Amino acid sequence: MTKTAKKGERTYLKNARLTAGYASRRTAAKTMPFRHDTIGRHERGEMQLSPEDMVAYAKHYRRKDILLRYCMECPVGRTNGFTVTERDLATVILRLTKELRKAASKDGLIERLEEIAEHGEMDEKTYPLLMEMVDDSKDLYGRFSDFFFLVATPPKKESEATEKGRNRHCNAVAAGGNV
């Protein structure tokens, strides 16, 4: 039977601790700036985490990806619509390259950006152009976010890699790269 995470529970913190080789919170607390019961409250979502707390966890567990997960929880990240979706390597790369090709094919996009850079400041002429580009690039931003998350997550051991992931890549390529 699969165990489901309770509302507010930060399973990513527990998973990061276990992946880092700390089988118990007491073991982790020996090298962390937190007591074992504080680590437990953080993992269960019973206690607020500060950005400094997350930096300490990321450093001690050697897991930058938990910083991105934290950003999805924080009010600033939620307000700005920051989301990351866990996807397999092939899917992330194929979706990113598709969006890059789409952005590069937009008429005059690169030239307009270079014009704005040469102008050197934002004014009433350049601001609407930049806002239009922001609206046009939201999908690209999402794909880059997924990519950064993937790169920040430590690779799985070969024994954990699945044949499914390899087949998915081959099928996606055979289907013309649409993922």
What is the structure about, briefly put?
By secondary structure, this protein is mostly helical.
Describe the protein in words.
There is one protein chain. The chain is an all-alpha fold and 179 residues long. It folds into two domains: 11-79, Orthogonal Bundle (434 Repressor (Amino-terminal Domain)); 89-174, no CATH class. Helices cover 64% and strands 0% of the residues. The protein has eleven helices and no strands. It has helices spanning 11-19, 25-29, 36-44, 51-61, 65-73, 75-79, 89-105, 109-119, 126-136, 138-152, 163-174. The longest helix is centred in the middle third of the chain and has 17 residues, at 89-105. The chain is elongated, with a radius of gyration of 21 Å.
